[in-house]
Amino acid sequence: xIWDEEFETLPREAMQALQLKRLQQVAQRVYNTVPFYxxxxxxxxxxxxxxxxLADLAKLPFTIKDDLxxxxxxGMFSVPMSEVVRIHASSGTTGKPTVVGYTRRDxxxxxxxxxxxxxxxxxxxxxxxxxxxxxxxxxxxxGAHYGAxxxxxxxxxxxxxxxxxxxxxxxxxxxxxxxxxPSYALFMxxxxxxxxxxxxxxxxxxGIFGAEPWSDNMRKEIxxxxxxxxxxxxxxxxxIGPGVASECEEAKCGLHIFEDHFIPEIIDPNTKEVLPYxxxxxxxxxxxxxxxxPLIRYRTRDISALHAEPCRCGRTLVRMDRVSGRSDDMLIIxxxxxxxxxxxxxxxxxxxxxxxxxxxxxxxxxxDTLEVQVExxxxxxxxxxxxxxxxxxxxxxxxxxxxxxxxxxxLVEPKTIERSMGKAKRVIDKRKM
Length: 433
Ligand code: DLL
What we know:
Layout: H1 5-8, H2 12-33, H3 35-44, H4 65-70, E1 84-90, E2 98-103, H5 104-120, E3 128-131, H6 139-151, E4 154-157, H7 163-173, E5 177-180, H8 182-195, E6 206-210, H9 216-226, E7 229-236, E8 241-246, E9 255-257, E10 262-267, E11 281-287, E12 298-304, E13 306-307, E14 319-320, E15 325-326, E16 331-333, E17 336-338, H10 340-348, E18 353-364, E19 367-376, H11 378-381, H12 385-403, E20 408-412, E21 427-429
Parallel strand pairs: 3-4, 3-5, 5-6, 6-7, 18-21, 19-20
Antiparallel strand pairs: 1-2, 7-8, 8-9, 9-14, 10-11, 11-12, 12-15, 13-14, 16-17, 18-19
């Protein structure tokens, strides 16, 4: 179901004309209201009124996370605080959080974009939306909440945690839609099984999952265990929160980017050159409709690729590939680039393993070590030692073949790896500690 027929199905040329007009306006506005952008534009030797075509976007300066840190907390806002009606923040691994602000119109835009996102999963006003994204400074909870309300669905504002109660409510209230991180959805499946609740007996139909990387194999696990259809949604606080891009349930083939609000680019993270459609690189977004916190060419560090072919769902929006990792999540192990998602996809191919794993990187002397701990299911766990050893050997071989690095594989008992109610932590890099 398409929420905003007009904008989600615009012919490419009309979309580009709209983007150009909005880009010109936003460039003018940030130049005049945000000292950081005045300086950055001047340094790059570009004036807002020299933007004549969309290709001129490539002449504008990038914005990176450090710029936001240096202007902490509100220095990047483009309106006075009296116009800001909401503040969110995302906590990084170190230091101060990244702070983002919204005007009343921004909140309205965001609700519309989340209505589009949920409609990509065919959510309607007849649905009961169980929202288990965290409420608070994190954008997931309130983002999904406003979108579901905009559609007119009945929202249950659960937030994360208290998993047994979540299952009870899902059962008693007849929730039809689950919004949460994919890792929390798996934890719910596990908790339901412990409680003797079968997801097949629930009314749950679709899950709207994002906020962390997950593989297609992980999707299959979730769809089986929860007996639902699962779609991938993408966003980041700096750009708006969730509501930047979403897969459609019809095709599940790339995430439609809401391009009338955010212009996407893919760049080579090293040379910073813009790459053509189809090539893999770092996603960059320019916010062209936001009032309080519009970022120009924001480098997300997320790795993806863009595709312009129309989708069979009818949307004409450019699609991005599922984010396969972050350029700063990339581990360099003995000189080899390794993404956690590659290890996940090896593990998820193997029967008998659970979708719960931890990657531990360390250094012995001058040599990096890679250990992969993964849970086995109850059946395999009760098997003979010999079977488990053979399994370890097989995973070691598969990882070596796929990544070219040797890993020490350790099978662990079911339910020993820490579960997450929000974004899962899957890597411990002891070299950095
Ligand atoms: O995670 C916004 C969000 C909430 C998205 C709920 C989807 C659902 P941040 O906390 O600022 O915002 O984290 C943003 O999370 O740069 C990606 O690295 C990662 N991420 C978000 N969605 C996906 C996804 C929210 N579908 C960062 N696949 C982003 C992979 C994702 N990574």
